[in-house]
Amino acid sequence: MQSEVQANRLHKISPLFILFENIKKLIFPIVLALFSTRSSSWEWFALGFALIISLGAIIQYRFYRYWLEGDKIRVQEGIFFRNVRQVPYKKIQNLNLVQSPLHRLFGVVKVQLESASGGKPEAVINVIDMQAVKVLKHKINDEEEQLNEEVAQPKDSILSLSFGEIVRYGMITNRGLVAVAIFFGFIMQFMDDQIERLITNYISQFTQWIDGLVSSIEFENGWLYYTLITIIGVVSAIIALWLLSIAMALLKFHGFVLVKNKDKLQATMGLLTRLQATIPMTRIQTLTIHESLLHRWFKRIGITIETAGGVNNEQQGVSMKQVVPVAPNGMRHELLKEIQGDVDWEAIEWQPINQKGWRRVLKVMVLIGLVITAPLALWNLYAYPIGFVIWLIYSVYYSKAYVKGAGYHINGQLVAFKDGVIFTKYTFVRLPKTQTITVKESPFDRRHGMASLVIDTAGAMVGAHHINIPYLDLGVAIAIKDRISDNIKGTKFNW
Amino acid sequence: MSSEQEQQQEAQQTNEQGQPEQQDNLISRLPESSQRLHPDSIKVSRITVAFVSLIIMLVPTVVALLSESYLIIAIGVAAGLIVFTIGFIWAKKSYDYTWYWLADEGLYIQSGVWWRKKTLIPFNRVQHTDVAQGPLERKYELGKLVTHTAGTRDASVSLDGILLDTAHELRSVLQEEGESDAV
């Protein structure tokens, strides 16, 4: 256990932050416990809880130690079950820093070290001061790197987001929608008559206010009146949603700066809580360009990456998936070149998939349409066929647009796939990063002599866009598979 | 071996509701070196299905005896029989459509009755391999080869229902090739 290297301990203020983290973890069970047990002794329970977790925080702090050895960091924690973990510097993929306003007050920072093992951070150092961070960074990054590295100047950054860009990001991504959904989902749990009455009361007050507004312009109670009310309602809802989304975007991305430091990307962001994340560029497994309808309206794109392992779940740590939250479409090649310079991005020519596939897309769309427009029949018998016909027209447009828009590209360096009508996405995987290659053939594929090709990579998030090329002729699918497998023959996978 | 293989393949193609032989699909493109699972694996999966359907029948029976409702027994037995019948047929079907073979580039596994897929695990992408054996498989000297890659959806690809010795052989091939490739 003894080593010549001096043991490092956490900053003296650490118990406070560990306490906060523990409270954050336990807040839901505690709140639920308080709501369910209406007995008079709940104060004692709460007090007991608080006592235990604060004691736990102090103990965690007292027993946490780390050593910066020659080629690895050793972290030791635990009282009865002592846990010693060694992470070689070379295996550390990301070094992330988190600094909330409270952290800044004490001049400390929380550090997360991520390796390729995936799941949760390999080591969390909660919290140390800036000097210790500097030493740690120096050790992890190459030795030759000098300690005097300054905070990166915006001028040599790849990308920095202005206020306007962040506003656009908020409007394009509409994260507020998710927040509202989660909020309502949460509220529903605690919904009882009283709260429900309160909410309906607010809604009716709001509609009355709009009602007053509209009727003050002297309208008859006709269809014009109702359409106007609907339009006002929808527009105000969209504006409210946008404002919420912009506020959330500002919280997350205020002062976003992406810097390239040798072979690492470093992003700094956040309004209240500042985050700093680094990613070695060679560890990028897949790169995806997002270009939704709204992106196109604003002439913008977004770029996300997946790294091997790392932290896939945003709740478990700082994840730096969004290397480019939003950027002008014109900067596309320039940015891609900065992130992966060894790829000839301008030479990419998209190959089409089998255009006959549109009938198959249409069939699926018709089936979906039959089901999702069915509830209309409950409202009005005629609404169902009308709704279905509207859906059908959209489906024909969608199916044709889908097969026209989808495509793939393969060269000696990478394999790429794009698809999507409203949310168009382009995913690129460099060939050395491919794992298994699968040719899939559904019964429907078989009838048309088609197949799809799927490539698995490390760190692929469930549901994320990946290389999954549908509606290929079987021969083409197998040819692509052969080309990739020929190419990776004899190349070792390097995380 | 190869002539036997061809016969099997032909049988395969006529099996498919008399579809023309020249039809181009994944099965028709199987190479000559492709191997089937061990026939005993059908027995193993049928016995497993039998156990499962027995449990499906037993649980409602116990519940029914306690609550004295005999309708539940009927439902339970019917469900158990359906599961057993489907499982019994499916065991043979899935055996018919599962193949594996080694090529220069890696291990191929072809599987799936309706939704078919051919997966290539390149030699140099194999992280490590496991050979596993359950109690029932031990009786028939069968085993399972699990190949782990650094991927996510295919983080572990298993080939279930081959002889334990075959599994060990495949494992050593995968390891050797992986090492010789990783210059």
Topology, element by element:
The complex is a heterodimer of chains A (495) and B (183).
Chain A: E1 7-9, H1 14-36, H2 42-62, E2 65-68, E3 72-77, E4 83-88, E5 94-99, H3 101-106, E6 108-114, E7 123-129, H4 130-140, E8 157-160, H5 163-173, H6 175-189, H7 193-215, H8 223-253, E9 257-261, E10 264-269, E11 274-280, E12 284-292, H9 293-297, E13 300-307, E14 324-328, H10 332-339, E15 351-352, H11 357-372, H12 376-379, H13 383-405, E16 407-410, E17 414-419, E18 423-430, E19 434-441, H14 443-447, E20 450-457, E21 468-473, H15 474-488
Antiparallel strand pairs in A: 1-2, 2-3, 3-4, 5-6, 5-11, 6-7, 8-9, 9-10, 10-11, 12-13, 12-18, 13-14, 15-16, 16-17, 17-18, 19-20, 20-21
Chain B: H1 2-15, E1 35-36, H2 40-67, H3 70-96, E2 99-102, E3 106-111, E4 116-122, E5 126-132, H4 135-139, E6 142-149, E7 156-163, H5 164-181
Antiparallel strand pairs in B: 1-2, 2-3, 3-4, 5-6, 6-7
Helix pairs in contact in B: 2-3
Organism (chain A): Kangiella profundi
Domain YdbS-like PH (chain A): 61-134, 261-311, 404-484
Protein name (chain A): YdbS-like PH domain-containing protein
Describe, in plain words, how this protein is organized in 3D.
The complex is a heterodimer of chains A (495) and B (183). With 495 residues, chain A is an alpha+beta fold. Chain A folds into 4 domains: 8-140, PH-domain like; 174-252, no CATH class; 257-353 and 406-489, no CATH class; 357-396. Helix content of chain A is 44%, strand content 25%. Chain A has helices at 14-36, 42-62, 101-106, 130-140, 163-173, 175-189, 193-215, 223-253, 293-297, 332-339, 357-372, 376-379, 383-405, 443-447, 474-488; strands spanning 7-9, 65-68, 72-77, 83-88, 94-99, 108-114, 123-129, 157-160, 257-261, 264-269, 274-280, 284-292, 300-307, 324-328, 351-352, 407-410, 414-419, 423-430, 434-441, 450-457, 468-473. In chain A, helix 5 packs across helix 8, helix 6 (175-189) packs across helix 8 and helix 7 crosses helix 8 (223-253). Chain A starts with 6 loop residues before the first strand and ends in a 7-residue tail after the last helix. In chain A, 32% of the residues are buried. By secondary structure, chain B is α+β, with helices and mostly antiparallel strands. The relative contact order of chain B is 0.12. In chain B, the strands form 2 sheets. Chain B has a 4-stranded antiparallel sheet. In chain B, strands 5-6-7 form a 3-stranded antiparallel sheet. In chain B, helix 2 (40-67) runs antiparallel to helix 3. Chain B has 2 domains: 41-94; 99-182, PH-domain like (Roll), CATH 2.30.29. Mean pLDDT of chain B is 85; it is low at 1-21. At the A-B interface, strand 19, strand 20 and helix 15 of A face strand 4 of B. Strand 19 (434-441) of chain A pairs antiparallel with strand 4 of chain B, so a sheet runs across the interface.
